[in-house]
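Entry 12.
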Amino acid sequence: MAETNFVANTTTVDAVWLNAQDAQDNTNFPYLTLTAAKNVESADHSKTFGLNLAGGFTVTLPKISEVTAGWWVIFRVETAPTTAYIITEDTGSDTNVLTGGFSSAELTDAAVAAYTAAATQVNLVANVAVIGDWVKISTNGTRFYIEGHTNVQAGVTIT
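Predicted 3D structure (tokens):
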């Protein structure tokens, strides 16, 4: 059997980042465990938040006007909630700036799959969301885009 060597056919290029913030954060993706309500700030860019209180709580995103294109955060269920985890836009300044949807390990009814073109909040549902469910929220500077995965289809609602 012939051996193929691809090394001779490669080209090395300098890394290109979307913005200076991405270049700075590429080597350090910070983590923070949450056990109480939090107001996320633009400085939380690229942070993963572990949701760790069975009693649930609300997390408020920054105003869309305070973040730049390329900003993102991740929320991961690390303690299954008995009261919902709610991730909401800043309702004092933003209205229905969340767009996106979720994949699910269980698709029982495609008609109720979690997707929306314009919403205010993401709910990780009490007694249904499980450890490992996650939500990523990113922006182009004018909207927040949501994506994520839930083990059980009913584990996430978008309203």
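Annotation: The chain has one domain: 7-158. The CA atoms of residues 70 and 139 lie 6 Å apart.
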